[in-house]
Amino acid sequence: MVSELCKLAGVSRSGYYDWLDAEEARAVREEKDLKDYHLIQAVFDSKRGRAGAKTVKMILENNYDVIMNLKKIHRIMNKFSLIAKIRRPNPYKRIAKATQEHKTLPNLLKRQFDQGEPGKVLLTDITYLYYGNGNPAYLSAIKDGATREILAYELSQTLKFDIVFNTLSTLKENMNETLHSECIIHSDQGLHYTHPEYLKRVKVMGLTQSMSRKGNCWDNAPIESFFGHLKDEVDFRSCNTFEELTDLIGEYMYEYNEHRYQWNLQKMAPKEFRNHLLATINQ
C-alpha cells in the first residue's frame, strides 16, 4: 500500500520514510519560524506595513540587536504574507512619449517664482489622488507664484487632455479675462503641456509658456510643494466616490485660498495677500 501511494504521489518510498523521520525537526523549525515571525511582524507593524525585508533586517539589527539572515526574512515574510506596501508610481509619468508634433520650450522662468506682481508667474502641474478601493483621480492646478493662490484647478477621473484645457478655461473665467500682460505660465515637459492644442490655447490667451528642464522638479518647486501639503492634509483615501473627493478637494481649495495664513505672505491668506499686493501696486 505504501509503495502504491508513493507511486501515485511521485515520491520514492525511501523519501517518504525520510520525511516521516524528519517530523520532529520540522516541528522545531515551525516553532522557531513562528517566534521569528512575531519579531518581524512587530517591526512590520511599527512601519505601518511599509517595511520590506531589507528595512526589517536593519531595524532588527539596530533596534533589537538581532542578526537575521536576509533570505530568512524574505522566506518568513512570504510564508506569513507580510507584503510591504509600496508607493504607487505616478501614472502621469508613465504616459507615452510625445510625438514629433509635441514641442518643448526653454525654461524662461529660471526659478524666479515670486516677481512681486499677482498673476505675472503662473505654475501648473498634474498630480494623482487615490480614493475608495484604489481608484485613481487626477488633479491639475495653476498656482500664482507671488500670492501662492490656486487660481484654477480641475479634478478628473482620466488623464485625457481635457484636464489641462479645462484648467486653462477656468483660469480665464476666474481672472475675468484680465490676465497680466507679461504673464508666464510654467510647467514641466509633460505630454499635456507640449501638446499642439495646449500650446495654441496658451498663445491665444496671451500667455508666454516656459518649461522646466527635463527631470528637474526644483524648476517647478512651488506647485510640487502645494501638492505635497494637500496630500498630507486631505484624507482623500477616505472618499468612497468621485463626488465625495470632488467636494473634499473643493473645500480644501477654498480654505487654502481664503484662510491659510502664511508667514511669508505677511501672515495673510493667499487671496488676502493678492488684494494687498494689488492695492500697493495701484497706489
Describe the structure.
The protein is built from 11 helices and 5 strands. By secondary structure, the chain is an alpha/beta fold. The chain has 2 domains: 2-79, no CATH class; 92-281, Nucleotidyltransferase, domain 5 (2-Layer Sandwich). A hairpin with a 5-residue loop joins strand 2 and strand 3 (150-156). Helix 4 (53-63) crosses helix 5. The longest helix is centred in the N-terminal third of the chain and has 24 residues, at 23-46. The chain is elongated. The protein starts with a helix and ends with a helix.
The CATH architecture of the largest domain comes to: 2-Layer Sandwich
Structural class of the helices, strands and pairings?
Answer: alpha/beta
Helix content: 40-55%
What is the rounded distance between the termini? Answer: 104 Å
* CATH classification class of the largest domain: Alpha Beta
Count of extended strands: 5
**Beta-strand fraction estimate:** 5-15%
Counting H and I runs of at least 4 residues, what is the number of helices? 11
* CATH homology superfamily name of the largest domain: Ribonuclease H-like superfamily/Ribonuclease H
Integer-rounded radius of gyration: 28 Å
- N-to-C series of helices and strands: HHHHHEEEHEHHEHHH
Q: Note poorly predicted spans.
A: none
| Integer count of domains | 2
The outline comes out as elongated
Note the main sheet: 5 strands, mixed
Mean pLDDT: 87
How are the strands of the biggest sheet laid out side by side?
Answer: 3-2-1-4-5
- Stated plainly, the CATH topology of the largest domain is called Nucleotidyltransferase, domain 5
